[in-house]
Amino acid sequence: MSQGGQRPAANRMTLQTFKARLGGASKGFKLLKKKRDALKAKFQALLKEIVTEKLSVGEGLKDGAFALAKSHYATGGEDIASTVIERARRPAITTKLYPDNVAGVSIPVFKLLHDPSKDTSAQTLGVASGGAVINATRETYLKAVFSLVKLASLQTAFHTLDEEIKMTSRRVNALEYVLIPRIEDTIHYITQEMDEQSREEFFRVKKVVEKKKAKLLKEREAADKESKIEINAIDAPSLLQTKKDPDMLF
Hints:
This protein has 250 residues and is mainly alpha-helical. 70% of the residues lie in helices and 8% in strands. It has helices at 12-74, 80-87, 131-235, and strands spanning 93-102, 105-114.
């Protein structure tokens, strides 16, 4: 249907145009539906991974807090946090962003990179006492950070997929319940109008043929009447011709 609620012209060219639109809309609907199904499958898989990773992060942070308490006890109650901050010069752990593709959707993925060569200053902590416990605490927190980065990556992908699924679902619903029914209604209207035009044309031609037949019949009847009149005029007796009277007997 055109803008303003006006119906399009009912002809074969318009019908072919709308049939092509219907084919494209149907094909796009099928592709978007497949994309939505693939995104939903990935979404459910991410949901399971997030639940598992959250439990892992909780366990890692709990173990880290317990290890930190043991390191404080091993160092005689000294505050090692200030010492660690003083010795920190270059970051030993960095995070990089990499793209991932799921059904044509770009999903950000965080990767944690650890460079042990930049972590040598922290390895000499607690040389006097508690060095092994501090190193164990650092390793525990390193594992917890890895889990946190992985959880952040999963949460970001989860949010991105959620938005993409909503947008794709809106497009699928618009095609299924708005655009395709509207095009089908227009095609039905054009088909009905063309059928009506065909019936009208057939009826008009039929009437013209009937009128022509009636006219020819009238002309033929008139010609027959004229021919009969001419024949009768030829067969009529002439007054100039002499006719012998029959003999009379007395």
